[in-house]
Amino acid sequence: MAQIDKKPINNDKDNEMNFVEELKWRGMINDIMPGAEEQLNKEMTSGYVGIDPTADSLHIGHLVGVMMLKHLQRAGHRPIALIGGATGMIGDPSMKSQERKLIDEETLRHNQECIRKQLAKFLDFDSDAPNHAIVVNNYDWMKDFTFLSFIRDIGKHITVNYMMAKDSVKKRLAANADHGMSFTEFSYQLLQGYDFLYLYEHEGCRLQMGGSDQWGNITTGTELIRRINGGEAYAITCPLITKSDGTKFGKTEGGNVWLDPKRTSPYKFYQFWINVSDEDAKKYIKIFTDLPQDEIAELTAEQEKDPGLRPLQKRLAKEITTMVHSAEDYENAVEASQILFSNKAKDILHKIDEETLLSVFEGVPTFDVPRSAIDEGTPMISLLTDVAAVFPSKGEMRKLTQGGGVSINKEKIADPNMPASADLLLNDKYILAQKGKKNYFLLIVK
User: Fold this and answer.
1) In DSSP terms, which residues pair with 251 in a beta bridge?
2) d(Cα 215, Cα 131) in Å, to the nearest integer?
3) Where are the extended beta strands (E) located within 167-310?
């Protein structure tokens, strides 16, 4: 076995954190194998979390495992992010109703690199510290493993009875009584178990972490290590995160909330967190930030004193948006969320990017406007009636304008005959028209 974990934990001020105690108060431990805490208190320990590489981005459902790795490194231990290139090509039966789609190696490598860049926001990969993080891909050690070698060297150590007893297998079979489970899926726990054995032998890894639905797969790994090497390895799982209303965490009407800004804009990402319920905010701020316990307690007390101020949601959204994206993206998201109420709305509108603009005004009526209408300086009264039917008549538009009820790009207009011009365009493409206080219309210039 690689001699990685023999260095005692540095007991200076920066590394006083007890990893298990940290996870406990954060509500991040569901199961812990006996001896795990003693191992972590004894010496620097390598621990890993497996990540599905079937997309080129993580989503917030991955963040619990990522935060476990982050806390592990903060406590002086060595995090390993395992990209499941081989197992991702098969599909894990745990809590799933269908097998996963297969991916080719080129896509796998692309996804791995994208995921590593995202993980670097949370973990230190590049320093010369002994507990710097590493990324590994189980495809690298599985791709040349022949079927005969695997069943001879690995498969013989775990009985079918042992594998059938796992909850993940039982639930999959019960849920699909008519179709059963393919051998491919059934073998998943053995492949994941071998990952743990491989990392134990080559990286000195003594700990695997994951969601509570992974307990069976993880303990298969500890059993393989015990039977083949006579070694001790450990498991820690966290509870599966749910929302207070019973719906699935991390899902919106639009699907997953991704870390990649091309998939989920920083504005939408920020909006997800700022809009969580009070009950969820109390839970999420412990799980998805590294704020200390006393600071979270103060924020919780403030929330209970005046829930309307929503300090938990605001701080949660700030911490996680800054961590995943940047401080600038966070500030822009806050500004964008205040467009409807800010006295600086005009300046903000001209500053925000197209995706954020469309996110803020998602669902408002839109009208396609020919570029010529702008280039020819069409009077606003004609633009908002004849070209785009914001108003049913010119008389109504003229009357509302006189009463100060018409705005272009959040700025009231006094003259209904003012000409349209290119300097009104937001992102060289849009004009935001407002009728009264609450009625918005987006003109898309083509």
Assistant:
1) 256
2) 25
3) 205-211, 234-238, 251-252, 255-256
- Looking at this protein, which amino acid is placed at residue 221? G
pLDDT at position 147 over 50: yes
Which segments of 90-187 does DSSP mark as H helices, in order?
A: 105-119, 139-142, 147-153, 160-164, 167-175, 183-186
Does residue 428 carry a pLDDT above 60? yes
Q: What is the largest CA-CA distance in the chain?
A: 88
Find tokens 């039977």 and name the residue. Answer: 227
Q: Which residue has the tokens 């710097």?
A: 132
Nearest alpha-carbon partner for 61 in 287, 397, 298: 287
Q: Give the pLDDT confidence of 206-242 residue by residue, as tens digits.
A: 999 999 988 988 999 999 999 999 999 999 999 999 8
Contacts of 67 (CB under 8 A, 6+ apart): 28, 122, 287, 288, 290
Contact 377, 419 (CB under 8 A): yes
pLDDT tens-digit readout, 307-360: 999 999 999 999 999 999 999 999 999 999 988 887 788 888 988 999 899 989
Look up residue 166 and give its amino acid: K
402 with 396: CB under 8 angstroms? no
Q: How far is CA 364 from CA 228, 304, 337, in A?
A: 63, 35, 15
CA angle, corner 137, sides to 71 and 74, nearest 5? Answer: 10
Q: At what angle do helices 63-74 and 278-287 cross, to 10 degrees?
A: 40
Residues involved in catalysis: 54, 59, 62, 96, 100, 192, 213, 248, 251-252
d(CA 87, CA 383): 58
